[in-house]
Amino acid sequence: MKFNGKLGLQQRVLPSYRVPFFDLLAGHCEGGMSLFAGQARAVEMIAGGTTQIAKHVEADNLHLLGGPFYFCYQRGFINWLEDWNPDALIMEANPRYLASPSAVSWMHNRGRKVLGWGLGFPSPNGRGAGVRAAFLHQFDGMIAYSQRGADEYAALGFPRERIFVAHNSVSPAPTEAIPARPSTINHQPTILFVGRLQARKRVDSLLRACAEINSAPRLLIVGDGPEREALESLAREIYPSAEFIGAKHGAELKPYFEQADIFVLPGTGGLAVQEAMSYGLPVIVAKGDGTQDDLVREENGWQIEPENYVALVNTMKNALSDIARLREMGKESYRIVSEEINIDKMAETFITALNAITPLR
Q1: Domain 190-339 falls under CATH 3.40.50.2300
Q2: Is the pTM of this model over 0.70?
Q3: Which segments of the chain have a pLDDT < 50?
Q4: How far is the CA of 18 from the CAs of 15, 152, 262, in angstroms?
Q5: What is the CATH number of domain 7-170+342-357?
Q6: What is the pLDDT of residue 188?
Q7: Running DSSP on this structure, what letter comes out for residue 202?
């Protein structure tokens, strides 16, 4: 499946985890793809990436204010459009990006289509709903990260037939078989966490929960970050057997995924969930922005309310009480990322959306 034209794609920043997807998408565009993205703020600690197929043009990001009042103005947006002259444009559907409306107008003045791409909008009441609806309706189509996001766009009056769900993914479909794991465990089960060690990940809750489980599971914590020293200190007090592995990337992660019996993400975020599933692991994750609703189901894991420590403990105890069930759930995790949610399927949906809104030439 191809897009018969030149594609422009705008992002606020270019994180390293998006590079494989953008290069894959660029390979589906017969006229090529140019990516307009700038630098993140230092406080965000977002690792940048370098594309090989997509042509990355650096935006001059002007970061304004902060917190709930944060805005970003991307200087050079129109100059980039004039230089690249795309047949279609995909943009982040974020009203905090102040240069976006002028870019949409530039495209529409030339009879070209613009797709928005975003998480969705929880529907506010009153004037807020009207403002968000007006923002959405400047786009010719919407790509949602999840079904929940698609439903939120539709609730604001955006036509369902022009909403496309491209399940958020950062990994290709697995190419290796599920690691062999016994159907029973005669030793302590192994729990794995992979991610940046920061407060919102709630690794402190994971340590406390492990201390309450009678089987005293082996806990592997892979990652680094500003909370590491505090977490190691807490572990010495309440769960001294916890193993802090440090930061690992790519192939370095493989042995830890293979050793694990279950993957647990007690806080928000977490790009490692899909990778864990590709190793045939069931998962426990905190509910977030909706992107995990489609990924984590009753058949392959558990979603718990964030900040609900009791739910975390009870769910971990329940999960580890039936190892044969865990293995079956792990097989379903593997099937989901093999057949339904991976960057190949995501790229296919983007091309489908582009072809649906762009007239044939």
Answers
A1: no
A2: yes
A3: 361
A4: 6, 24, 26
A5: 3.40.50.2000
A6: 85
A7: -
